[in-house]
């Protein structure tokens, strides 16, 4: 009888422990606590309550999406160790300095903003390290295998001559509309010239950069994800996008050169590096997907959601 009680108690303890594990990736545990913490921003943007049964399906979808990203971060980190690839503290310091410079913030202002966003410098450093590791692995194992031919570059130039302008020094302005305002009406005023993008951002945006008219600093073209690259490469300096959805809010983007100035169109020779980067990105992402698929296929992944 006593043995039966002990076994039942042990099973109960084991079940409780298993309930706290979201996944195990090659022996490395992802806890439910860490998964929930990483999923919180997405759930907040979607205004979902994990304790509301009506939201259960959407919450589960977010959990699985975030878990997939966390699994990939672990696989990339494990692959980096195998390849002896690392990111130095100085590399991370440089990235943080760029962020502060782009937002025109002091160290104290930057840390205060992180605190308002329920984050910390330590968490940011961890996220930057993951991002830089991914970039290094992608460059080593993917980038060198991607080929863009002169014929492809010439064909792209002929088809997109009107978009081949000098990108150096261009800034991106982002406006995220408050749900309390009529975004369509404000966008129409910007389009008509009755209101500038900067004025609208200062008055109606809920993004942290609203005081600077939405200015996010210089565009880092080589670090844009495919969605943002696709959006910006269709624009010319001075253009403002139509409204689009961004994390549950209406948003607009302004591409501009501080201080104004005309649009300098590029010759084929001048445009080659720019076109190479444009054509290389989707090819690299396709190869990266293949590469990460191979990592997954070789990994032992136990998902316990």
Automatic annotation (TrEMBL):
The keyword Signal applies. InterPro entries: OMP_Chaperone_SurA, PPIase_dom_sf, PPIase_PpiC, Trigger_fact/SurA_dom_sf. It comes from the Bacteria. Residues 1-15 form the signal peptide. Pfam families: Rotamase, SurA_N_3. Gene3D superfamilies: 3.10.50.40, Porin chaperone SurA, peptide-binding domain. Keywords: Isomerase, Rotamase, Signal. Residues 150-242 form the PpiC domain. PANTHER family: CHAPERONE SURA. This is SurA N-terminal domain-containing protein. It comes from Desulfovibrio falkowii.
């Amino acid at each position: 009888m006593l043995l039966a009680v002990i076994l039942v108690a042990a099973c109960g303890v084991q079940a409780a422990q298993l309930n706290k594990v979201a996944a195990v990736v090659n022996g490395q545990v992802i806890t439910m606590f860490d998964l929930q913490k990483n999923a919180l921003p997405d759930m907040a943007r979607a205004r979902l309550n994990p304790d509301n049964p009506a939201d259960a399906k959407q919450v589960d979808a977010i959990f699985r999406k975030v878990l997939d990203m966390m699994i990939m971060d672990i696989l990339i980190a494990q692959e980096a160790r195998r390849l002896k690839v690392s990111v130095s503290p100085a590399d991370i310091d440089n990235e943080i300095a760029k962020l502060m410079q782009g937002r025109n913030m002091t160290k104290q202002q930057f840390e205060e903003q992180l605190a308002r966003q329920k984050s910390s410098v330590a968490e940011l450093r961890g996220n930057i390290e993951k991002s830089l590791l991914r970039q290094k692995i992608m460059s080593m194992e993917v980038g060198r295998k991607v080929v863009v031919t002169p014929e492809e570059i010439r064909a792209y130039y002929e088809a997109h001559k009107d978009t081949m302008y000098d990108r150096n020094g261009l800034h991106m302005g982002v406006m995220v509309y408050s749900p309390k305002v009529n975004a369509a009406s404000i966008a129409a005023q910007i389009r008509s010239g009755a209101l500038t993008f900067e004025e609208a951002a200062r008055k109606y945006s809920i993004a942290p950069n609203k005081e600077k008219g939405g200015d996010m600093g210089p565009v880092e073209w080589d670090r844009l994800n495919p969605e943002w690259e696709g959006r910006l490469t269709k624009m010319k300096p001075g253009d403002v996008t139509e409204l689009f959805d961004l994390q549950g809010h209406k948003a607009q983007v302004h591409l501009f050169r501080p201080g104004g100035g005309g649009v300098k169109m590029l010759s084929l020779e001048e445009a080659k590096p720019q076109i190479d980067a444009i054509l290389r990105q989707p090819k690299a992402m396709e190869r990266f997907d293949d590469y990460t698929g191979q990592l997954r296929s070789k990994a032992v992944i136990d998902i316990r959601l």
